[in-house]
């Protein structure tokens, strides 16, 4: 939520996870992200990176390289086009959209995970989580999720909340976040008529949905409201 360089270090220090998102990148916000990321690393708070439009411009490519090199990232949450840009492979993508290409995403995700020592959560019709030694595929969700701008950014924030309550196991956190998010998308799509009503129903679903999987240390009755309470220190 913060981008002023005067406060981001403090904000990061009172949080339990930091989500860096380069959607509206400029030189000042990049400097602020570097400060926030380093503060989070110092406090051992997990950092989630959403490299929005990573391959779209030289500025974004350089920014992502700088962030990945200087900040310890726990989870890189991206789409296929962004992963291809980070991995330096050919991909036909324009702006923030995933685009199209012909690469083995599991192999690429594993390579990027190893190279930067982080968990890759690459999303699309099928999501892939790779941490360098293990790869998990997550299906589900609904194609409507690809029709609403900001769904990836919101997912990165939700992934940060899951990682906040499981900082020692970001792989499990990313997997559970994706399952949770996809299930919410399916439910919302079942009762919506298009992207407009889907968006509204999806937010309600995120708020009210119970976390059904119990592999993550939650009680069955706990919902996302509890997750948020646990993920904010104050
Ligand atoms: N065709 C699809 N079918 C099912 N789920 C999808 C589809 N497209 C995107 N999603 C879901 O939407 C969410 C956002 O992913 P994505 O659209 O890849 O992000 P981004 O906005 O960064 O491109 C993820 O949970 C993903 O699983
Ligand atoms: C329009 C916009 N503003 C900030 S990021 C962004 C686009 C990326 O959003 P997403 O990839 O989540 O659809």
From TrEMBL:
Pfam family, one: HK
Signal peptide: none
Cofactor(s), names only, from the UniProt record: Mg(2+)
InterPro entries in UniProt: Hyethyz_kinase, Ribokinase-like
Any coiled-coil regions, as ranges: none
UniProt pathway: Cofactor biosynthesis; thiamine diphosphate biosynthesis; 4-methyl-5-(2-phosphoethyl)-thiazole from 5-(2-hydroxyethyl)-4-methylthiazole: step 1/1
Alphabetized UniProt keyword annotations: ATP-binding, Kinase, Magnesium, Metal-binding, Nucleotide-binding, Thiamine biosynthesis, Transferase
Enzyme Commission number(s): 2.7.1.50
SUPFAM superfamilies: Ribokinase-like
Swiss-Prot/TrEMBL catalytic activity: 5-(2-hydroxyethyl)-4-methylthiazole + ATP = 4-methyl-5-(2-phosphooxyethyl)-thiazole + ADP + H(+)
NCBIfam families noted in UniProt: PRK09355.1 (NF006830)
Designated name of the protein: hydroxyethylthiazole kinase
């Amino acid at each position: 939520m913060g981008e002023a360089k005067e406060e981001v270090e403090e904000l990061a220090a009172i949080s339990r996870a930091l989500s860096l998102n380069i959607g509206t990148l400029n030189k000042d916000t990049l400097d602020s992200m570097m400060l926030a990321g380093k503060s989070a690393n110092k406090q051992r708070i997990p950092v989630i990176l959403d490299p929005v439009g990573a391959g779209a411009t030289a500025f974004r490519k350089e920014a992502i390289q700088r962030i990945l090199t200087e900040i310890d990232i726990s989870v890189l949450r991206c789409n296929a086009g962004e992963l291809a840009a980070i991995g330096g492979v050919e991909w036909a993508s324009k702006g923030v959209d995933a685009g199209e290409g012909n690469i083995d995403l599991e192999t690429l995700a594993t390579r990027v995970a190893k190279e930067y020592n982080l968990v890759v959560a690459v999303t699309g019709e099928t999501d892939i989580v790779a941490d360098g030694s293990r790869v998990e595929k997550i299906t589900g969700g609904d194609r409507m999720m690809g029709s609403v701008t900001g769904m990836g950014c919101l997912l990165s924030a939700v992934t940060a909340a899951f990682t906040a309550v499981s900082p020692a196991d970001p792989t499990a956190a990313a997997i559970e976040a994706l399952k949770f998010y996809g299930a919410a998308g399916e439910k919302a799509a079942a009762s919506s008529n298009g992207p407009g009503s889907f968006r509204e129903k999806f937010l309600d679903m995120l708020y009210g949905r119970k976390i059904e999987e119990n592999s993550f240390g939650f009680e069955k009755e706990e919902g996302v409201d509890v997750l948020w309470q646990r993920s904010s220190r104050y």
